[in-house]
UniProtKB/TrEMBL annotation:
It is found in: Cell membrane. It comes from the Archaea. Residues 141-281 form the Glycosyltransferase RgtA/B/C/D-like domain. The keyword Transferase applies. Its EC number is 2.4.-.-. It is a multi-pass membrane protein. GO terms for molecular function: glycosyltransferase activity. It comes from Haloarcula argentinensis. The chain crosses the membrane at residues 24-41, 90-118, 139-160, 196-214, 220-249, 269-291, 326-349, 356-377, 383-400, 412-433. Its main location: membrane. InterPro entries: LipidA_mod_glycosyltrf_83, RgtA/B/C-like. Keywords: Cell membrane, Glycosyltransferase, Membrane, Transferase, Transmembrane, Transmembrane helix. This is Glycosyltransferase family 39 protein.
Length: 595
């Protein structure tokens, strides 16, 4: 028990010692803070991703349900509501938005929360978003985004600590810098979700396992098991941490100066670690505590396996999805360095002496994640997030090796790699200050008048550029009364995904009626004229997407940071092209949007 009690104190002392003994660490962390935090408030009070609004609403509905019915039943129904029984993110974001709820109670706006109870799913919960005061969305999103920024900084520090523990301070610094300049890592730091908190606990578990192998401290093994369980409770794709725990146990047994049969026989440690990790997973799912085992089992075993075959993107070879994700997330120079570092690490593994165990764990984690995602139909950049620190550690370590062997060669290699990666990440990060949807939202806010309506053909409010003060009309799902009352809106908004109807043979958004209607609008028929557009207009308004399965089409993704993405992740500038049309004349009753 004393070992457990000392862990927080030892952690604080380690951070203080690092800041004291490494004069460069504070500058690395400052660089990280600037990169991960730059323009983190984009899209607020709208949402950056669908995951972001669903995770925030999970927490807000729980509060609203308890306020409306302050009992266990109110808590249970609030927790059970949601897109799916997601795990520990509910705890984190419920705590993050607590100050907002307290301010609402003090200022007499607590009733705004009660209107959030069980909101309609139509148009991405637009009705509750429009009815709830803007300041509640603004500060709630700021709170959970800042939580994510802090988690990103923790991930950078843990990457530094892993590098130091395995190969020394130079490797730790370089690894932390490489991660801080990884564009895919930076994009995910600017949205709220479970990816970044899960990554923190994966890295914490990995660090504790490295220290366990080095010291044979059983408390560290148990702490790593607990951290791994928390990581899985945040995101089920953290499951490879279980393999890391097993490999670390084997490495420690092999490193001990005793017969392998004796060192492997530690049933108390293994059973305690397994039970502790499982307990963290169960406790990390609020639905398991209030609704029983069934939704928990369905989520863990049903939801995780269904993702392997559920298509959310076009059919393409799995290698194309890996290259697409890594080209976009790292940029071509860092992708090249990562591939070379993996090969060099494997080739020199036997020569790594004291660093071999930590290096084996890093390689194990990387291989495990790649093997897991290779079984999926498709995946996104945010799914690859746990591999970015592992890649940064391998790159940082091999750069240090190169500098020790040939400093004259290492200097230009390091300069080229860091400068090109910094330019790629810097340009991509700077673009968050001028995103098309943000600019379109500001234009509508400045030019619209009270009572104006904007029509949109998206199914989620997150996919639109709509000011909180402006009424939005989503065509699909409107009842006849609303259809008649809003038949001739002042504005019509067309986005990048709408234009996909104009591109032949897309894997979704195909339809002659929709394509004909959109082309008529773009030709300024129906008494609507184009008054503003934001972002780069596709040629003849037809999106030019990378061809699924084409290697040459992918090369641009590793050169231009904000490139075309597929499906549900944060849409970067290329996907945010927004065109606004304004009514110029009488209402044309022949206009019937075929959506």
């Amino acid at each position: 028990m004393s070992g457990w009690r000392s862990l927080p104190r030892r952690a604080v002392e380690q951070v203080r010692a690092d800041l004291r003994d490494d004069p460069y660490l504070r500058y690395v962390l400052l660089l990280s803070a600037v990169m991960v935090g730059f323009w983190f408030w984009h899209r607020i009070p709208n949402f950056a991703t669908r995951d972001e609004y669903s995770r925030l609403l999970d927490a807000m509905v729980t509060y609203a349900s308890v306020i409306e019915e302050p009992s266990f039943e109110g808590l249970k129904t609030g927790i059970e509501w949601g897109r799916a029984p997601f795990g520990a993110t509910l705890y984190l974001y419920t705590l993050a938005i607590l100050p907002v709820m307290l301010v609402a109670a003090i200022t007499g706006d607590l009733g705004a929360f009660t209107t959030i109870v069980f909101p309609s799913w139509e148009f991405g919960h637009y009705q509750v978003w429009a009815a709830t005061p803007e300041w509640i969305w603004t500060w709630s999103l700021v709170s959970i985004r800042l939580t994510n920024v802090v988690a990103a900084l923790c991930a950078v520090y843990l990457t530094y600590r892993l590098g130091v523990a395995i190969e020394g301070r130079n490797a730790g610094r370089l690894s932390a810098v490489v991660l801080s300049l990884t564009f895919g890592f930076l994009t995910i730091s600017k949205e709220a979700g479970e990816d970044m908190p899960a990554l923190v606990f994966v890295l914490l578990a990995l660090y504790l396992l490295v220290r366990y192998v080095q010291t044979d401290d059983g408390t560290l093994f148990l702490a790593a098991s607990a951290a791994g369980g928390v990581a899985i409770a945040f995101k089920l794709t953290a499951a490879p941490v279980i393999l890391l725990i097993g490999v670390a146990f084997l490495l420690r047994a092999r490193a001990t100066d005793a017969p392998l049969t004796e060192t492997l026989y530690r049933p108390k440690l293994l059973l305690s670690g397994a039970l502790l990790g499982f307990a963290m997973i169960v406790l990390g799912f609020p639905t398991a505590l209030v609704a029983g085992a069934e939704p928990f089992i369905e989520r863990v075993f049903g939801g995780s396996t269904s993702r392997m075959s559920h298509p959310t993107g076009p059919d393409a070879p799995v290698w194309w999805w890996f290259l697409r994700g890594y080209f976009s997330a790292l940029g071509l120079p860092l992708v090249t360095a990562a591939a070379a570092s993996v090969v060099a690490t494997v080739a020199t593994l036997r020569d790594r002496s004291s660093a071999v165990h930590g290096t084996v764990l890093i390689l194990t984690g990387l291989v495990a994640y790649i093997a897991m995602f290779s079984q999926w139909h498709d995946f996104r950049v945010h799914h690859l997030l746990p591999t970015f620190p592992l890649i940064a550690l391998l790159v940082g370590g091999r750069l240090v090796d190169l500098r020790e062997r040939s400093s004259s060669l290492a200097r230009p290699v390091m300069a080229i790699l860091l400068v090109t990666t910094a330019i790629y990440a810097g340009v991509g990060t700077a673009q968050f200050a001028s995103m098309p949807r943000d600019e379109a939202t500001a234009w509508l806010e400045d030019n619209s008048e009270e009572g104006d309506v904007v029509e949109t053909y998206r199914v989620h409010i997150q996919d639109t550029a709509v000011p909180h003060s402006l009424t939005a009309r989503h065509v699909a799902g409107q009842d006849s009364e609303a259809e008649e009352a809003m038949a001739c809106p002042q504005y019509i908004q067309i986005g990048y995904r709408d234009l996909l109807y104009l591109k032949e043979d897309t894997y979704y958004r195909n339809g002659d009626a929709q394509a004909t209607y959109l082309r008529s609008l773009l030709n300024e028929e129906y008494n609507y004229r184009i008054v503003a557009e934001f972002g780069e207009r596709p040629p003849n308004f037809v999106p030019q997407r990378p061809t699924p399965g084409s290697f040459t089409d992918l090369l641009r993704l590793g050169v231009v940071p904000h490139t075309d993405q597929f499906a549900d992740e944060q849409e970067l500038a290329a996907n945010q092209y927004t065109l606004i049309l304004e009514r110029d004349g009488e209402c044309d009753t022949s206009r019937h949007p075929p959506f």
